[in-house]
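Page 47, continued from p. 46.
Same chain as before, 425 aa.
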Amino acid sequence: MYSMINRSELVKLLINLFVISVSKILPVAGLLALNLFLAANLDVTVYGQYAIASSALFFMGPLLSWGTADVVLRKVSVFSHSGQDHLSKNLLSRAIILTSVFSMILFCALFAFNHLFKYENIFFSLLYCAPVIAYSILISSNSRGSGHIISSQIYDIFFKSMMLLIFFIFLSLNYLMTERLTSSFYLSALITLVVIFWRIKFSDIATNFLNYKNARRYIALILNGSPYLVISLTQGLKNFADLFVVGFMLGSASAAVYSIALQIVLVISFGQMIISILLSRKISFSLKHSNIEQLSFWFRRSTYLSGLLGVCYVFLVLFFGESILISFLGIEYGQAFELAMVLGLGRLFHLSVGPVMQIMALSNNQASASKISLQIGLINVILSIILVFYFGVMGAAFAGAISIALWGYLLKRKVVKLYPTLRVW
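Result:
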């Protein structure tokens, strides 16, 4: 009986590990391939408009829930352990209603902005898909809080996979490339939305909406979610501020070149993600049992593997990057090679400090990590504006490299304070 329990737990662990790996790696790889494909087949200015709009879309999605996804994650975890599942359902319903209200405000703001300022971006309408991302994040947080690891990953995979699948189906139709792309976003958003509201009971949401006695709870939910909203905002600024600044100050063509540089650097994040998934269980086990010696071993192992990944990246980009970019994407993307080298240096420094963000998350120090991310997000915005003004698109690369390197340094300093005896080298 004992061996059977162990075997079943092992199978469950392997399934969870596989789903988490696929949910994190496959969408990143798919979107990377899609971006390179679009850059090769769209005019550089048009692709720049898509890069700005798609970044804004995935940036705005978490903001529409007003930080309530993190509130749901934490409180549902408590409710599930105490057997109060009805409270979890009520909390999720209120969060979805709030997200719907903020989504309507977004629709009105986008409509007014587009008609007042006549913003010239043919992919501007993609932002109307942001609520679906917000709903997906809410359902994912509810599933994670309830302990359903597989369910928490499904909707992110579903939305991005549907978008990629529909887009490549549309390639066989006689549509313009821009029409195929926007249609794939709209259809995948619609299908995902139907699946989400089928998964949760719409009647429960309607009941909460009609129950005016819960008005104070909506206000409390907004107040509780506000700090997480600020964190989501700064996380987005940390990741996308330099691209937005380039698009605003230098135009869509420069944003296209910078976006390709970011896609190249994404290869490092892709490899780091695999290393993180492979070693996360070892690091988590060491932290749980306060085995600092074992934690130091796996910390150094992760650092060495990341260092090897970084060396491979520098070798490939330095010797083959420029020729590959020009061959596949055209001469207009040649500068992306130089930008990728600068951005890669910042990422390499971040890799050299080890899996510090992973340790912060596994040791329940997310609040401290979020404060550091907030600081880095603001620094990235300020640096991007100043350096782009003086040095153009290369200034944005330096701003991004400095920000990511500083982020790693501050996280490492915090981890060393938490675990003074940890041997990081």
